[in-house]
Amino acid sequence: MSLLVRLASVEAPVGQIVFYRSAYALLPIIAYLIWHGQFPSGLKTRRPGGHLKRSLFGCAAMFFSFVSLAHLPLALASALGFLAPLLAVPAAMVFLRERPGAAVIGAAFAGFFGVVLMLAPAFDGPSLDRHTVIGVAAGLAMAVTTAAAKVEIKALTATEASGTIAFYFAVVCALAGLATWPLGWASPVGSSLGYLIGAGFAGGFAHIAMTEALARAPASTLAPFEYTTMLWALAFDALIFGLLPSPMSLAGALVVVTAAAVVAFADKIVLQVQRIG
């Protein structure tokens, strides 16, 4: 999906990409709800305000993410995305009153250090590239808003089905993207139109795949697959855009991904240490 967004951004503005990404994602999401016998009955909710709050945070995160993808290499934009679970740690402490262990808090600090390493080469030199500044700022804003959205999702899942959350999120984002139409949209044809529609279907199917995976396996078992995002991003950057990261940026990205993995596996790590002890 990120690759298709990156390709679509050559011609289409971000608001138009958000609309296509969200509107076409509704098709597989609705098909998924029908498959589970939850359409339209599954759309009933007692927490419309909660859905709106989650969707607004998520929609803001999508806008920032797509701006970041339009201005940065895939690998750098993807690495910034891994800041979200790290930022979710202090957010959960404040808003959900969770008390993470020392390993999780230490991993969060290490992740921020990794971001500094990752971004240092981009800001090195006599002249600063405008695209880099915009992309990094958007990526950091995306991480903050994604962390806020994750806190809202955590609260919603206590009473709401995942398909319901996904449906309302896609609807709100499609409307937000559509609201940018008066600002000027491109008239995509051929491959450009394919990139826009493909991003929508890819995003919708990805959400379904994630939901089905979480229904069948522990989150800790599935977490390593999420971290292969960096491998895909590096491969696409090299093969399609001819971009290779600097050694320092690559080291910083690995620190961020490792820190995010520690946050995901913290409970298992503590249990293993206790068993060994």
Q: Can you describe what's shown?
A:
- By secondary structure, the chain is an all-alpha fold.
- The chain has one domain.
- It contains 13 helices and no strands.
- It has helices at residues 2-8, 14-23, 26-35, 48-71, 74-81, 83-95, 102-119, 130-156, 162-178, 191-216, 219-227, 229-240, 247-276.
- The protein is globular.
- The relative contact order is 0.21.
- The model has no long low-confidence stretch (mean pLDDT 82).
Which secondary structure elements does this structure contain, and how are they paired or packed?
Blueprint: H1 2-8, H2 14-23, H3 26-35, H4 48-71, H5 74-81, H6 83-95, H7 102-119, H8 130-156, H9 162-178, H10 191-216, H11 219-227, H12 229-240, H13 247-276
Helix pairs in contact: 1-10, 2-4, 2-9, 2-10, 3-9, 3-10, 4-8, 4-9, 5-12, 5-13, 6-7, 6-8, 6-13, 7-13, 11-13
Q: How much β-strand is present in the residues?
A: under 5%
Straight-line N-to-C gap: 44 Å
What's the total count of β strands? 0
Low-pLDDT regions:
none
Radius of gyration: 19 Å
Helical amount: over 70%
What would you call the shape?
Answer: globular
Structure class: mainly alpha
Number of helix segments?
A: 13
Outline the biggest β-sheet.
none
Helix-strand string: HHHHHHHHHHHHH
Mean pLDDT, as a whole number? Answer: 82
What would you say about this model in short?
The chain is an all-alpha fold and 277 residues long. It has helices at residues 2-8, 14-23, 26-35, 48-71, 74-81, 83-95, 102-119, 130-156, 162-178, 191-216, 219-227, 229-240, 247-276.
